[in-house]
Amino acid sequence: MSIQLDTAQTLIRYISEWDPREAAHTKGGYLEGMIEVPNISGKIVMQIQTYPAEDVDPLISQVHPVLLHCVRIGKGKRDQELEPVPTYHHWKQVFEIENDEVKILNKTTELDVEKDGRVRNVPLKDTVTKLISNRITLGRKRGQLNLILLQPKQKSRAQEAEASVTKVLNDRLGGTEDTPMENYEKLFKGKNVKNLKRLRLKIDFFTEDFHCSAISTRTIVDTGNKDIGAMDFIDAHPLLSCVKGNRTIMMVSEYSLSKDVVPIFQIFTIDPIHQSEVHRVDLDHFLVQPEEVKEDSCIEVMDVHIIFRSPAQPRLELVTEPFAIKLAVKRNGDSNICSKKFNFKYIEHKGEDQCIMCCFPIT
Fold it and tell me: Pairing mode, if any, of strands 9-10 and 220-222?
């Protein structure tokens, strides 16, 4: 019995972006993976809940305020009339498994009312997917379990009827509106907001005489958070400079960037046994990094762009074996280096009047 996530990064949306009372739309961010169900006959109750990352303060080691929502993907459209409005109760979702059918036990609230005052006819129990070889597939397709993560607002920004971090924590901890939550809240905002943007899933299975649970081994990170989220770069240009440097290079990210990111160069060689490229950390010291250049505005970070000037590389001739240079980005806050690397080439400087890089610089 386990829950295995293929999704290490996803975009955690706000509740309003997925409100089933609004016009039909889908925003993406589906969790992908597989749930292995215990091989037990009869009815099984399955509960899935959001759960904190491993390295959090002990006070919040059992609670997380992000919500879990079950989207209903139909024939070419979203069957949103089958979905209750997400609110502070939905930090967990409960299902019944029987005869290979997986049914959700919907929890409706006073929010499940249309704009004209009609009560929404959300089924209290409804089939969402099938059990195949004691496995449930998580994904974005019809027939799979379509789960997404939704972020409640901070108390100061939430309207009275909206779910807030405070309300979710109160519900999870069994408190009331008057229960002091300050010590818990502060661990999910301000300098601790990364705790809100990182989480795992916990799954429990129950029968009358059986209970087991598991926690996903992978921590899901919100790609929308620039301090801990994904660094996916889609372009870099130009990827050529002479060894004198001073050529303007631009890199473009898919997501907003933290101000502490810096471009870095790395040296790669070919592994003769596996014929694959290998990062040679032992050779990187021959490179001059953009961050080492002391001129003002050498590196400029603007939303999804990094602009910098290629540093001069006076020591490359000291590398005595065939090598390639790759351009990547490092975030100093957590030392994360982007997985996307661009092939970068330094060429010989042939004199001020003959070097095409120097005669026709990009500025």
Answer: parallel
Establish if 227 belongs to a structural domain. no
- Residue-wise pLDDT for 120-149, tens only, equals 999 999 999 999 999 999 999 999 999 999
Classify the C-alpha dihedral 63-65-66-68 as positive or negative: positive
What is the residue whose two structure tokens read 């799954």? 203
d(CA 123, CA 104): 9
Residues paired with residue 127 on neighbouring β-strands, in sequence order: 103
Domain boundary among 200, 222, 244: 222
48 and 74 together in one domain: yes
Residue 185 φ/ψ, nearest 5 degrees: -60, -45
pLDDT digits (tens, 9 = 90+) for 62-91: 999 999 999 999 988 899 999 999 999 999
Name the CA dihedral angle for 202, 11, 334, 62, rounded to a multiple of 10 degrees: -20
| 3-class DSSP state of 107 | coil
In what order do the strands lie in the sheet containing 248-253? 233-237, 248-253, 305-309, 299-302
Helices (H), 237-288: none
Q: What is the largest CA-CA distance in the chain?
A: 85
136 and 13 assigned to the same domain: yes
Name the more confident of 45 and 303. 45
Instruction: Indicate whether 228 belongs to any domain.
Output: no
Q: Cα 261 to chain center, whole Å?
A: 18
How far apart CA 299 and CA 294 sit, in angstroms, is 10
Tokens describing residue 33: 């993976």
The answer to whether residues 87 and 152 touch, using CB atoms and an 8 Å cutoff, is no
Same domain, 134 and 275: no
Residue 331: other Cβ atoms inside 10 A: 20
Q: What is the pTM of this model?
A: 0.77
Helix (H) or strand (E) holding 114: none
Same domain as 246, residue 151: no
Could you tell me how many helices (H) and strands (E) the chain has, helices first?
A: 3, 24
Domain that residue 58 falls in = 2-222
Indicate the SS3 state at residue 120: coil
Take residue 13 and report the two structure tokens written for it. Answer: 């949306």
